[in-house]
Structures are given as structure tokens and as C-alpha cells.
């Protein structure tokens, strides 16, 4: 029994199959649907479409998106990054933050700027 059906046993798969070692299930309920990819061991990856929202859930220890020779773009009206502990941004040669309006940096404690040629002002 998949992780999705153990949570809600009323959702029987619309389609079920295998791709390599992975079990693949498609669950539907009205205007909602879930694609569930389950490896032979470990947690399932669930991709859900509900109304106008697409969400992806994975309860495993880590998730990596890799495209070493490609450019990846996230484009939207609004993008939110949230982490319980740390958000890290690294650039091999440059990190560029640009806004057509204001850029705001807030912290409950200290804000540190380190680097050669750090400029501040109007």
C-alpha cells in the first residue's frame, strides 16, 4: 500500500505501474490529482495538482535538483524561500540581487556585510 493510500484509504489509484524500480501511481479526486513515485526503499515523492495549485512533497532526508551544464530559471509573480534553519546562496563568481524598486534586508539580530569594496549609500 502506498504512503498516500495509508494516509487516506479512500483514494484508490486511477493508474498504477512501475518505472524501473519505482512504483508509479496516479490518484484522482474531482479536480485534484496526485502523482506518487515510490522507490523500493525510502519515502515517496508526491506531486499534487489541486485547483490552481501545483505542489510537490517529499519527506526524505534530502532533495537535489541538478543541471550542471544548464541554466535554471524560477519565474513567477512572487517567489518565497523559507527554511526552518538556514537559506544559503552561493555564486562561483558573483551573486546579483536586483530590484526595480526597493531591496529590504531585515534581521532580528545582526546584519553583517563582508567583502572587498562594500559600498553603502544613496
Q: Percent range for helical residues?
A: under 10%
What's the overall average pLDDT, rounded?
85
Strand percentage lies at 25-35%
Q: What Rg, in angstroms, do the CA atoms define?
A: 21 Å
What is the helix tally? 1
Your description of this structure?
- The model is unreliable at 1-10 (pLDDT under 50).
- The chain has 1 helix and 5 strands; from the N terminus they run H-E-E-E-E-E.
- The protein has 122 residues and is mainly beta.
- It is 4% helix and 26% strand.
- The chain has one helix at 3-7, and strands at 15-19, 22-29, 32-38, 45-50, 53-58.
- It has a domain at 3-58.
- The protein is elongated and about 60 Å long.
- Strand 1 (15-19) and strand 2 (22-29) form a beta hairpin.
- A 5-stranded antiparallel beta sheet has the order 1-2-3-4-5, with no helix packed on it.
Keywords:
mainly beta, 122 residues, 26% strand, disordered N terminus
Question: Summed up, what is this model?
Answer:
The chain has 122 residues and is mainly beta. The protein is 4% helix and 26% strand.
SSE inventory with pairings:
Elements: H1 3-7, E1 15-19, E2 22-29, E3 32-38, E4 45-50, E5 53-58
Antiparallel strand pairs: 1-2, 2-3, 3-4, 4-5
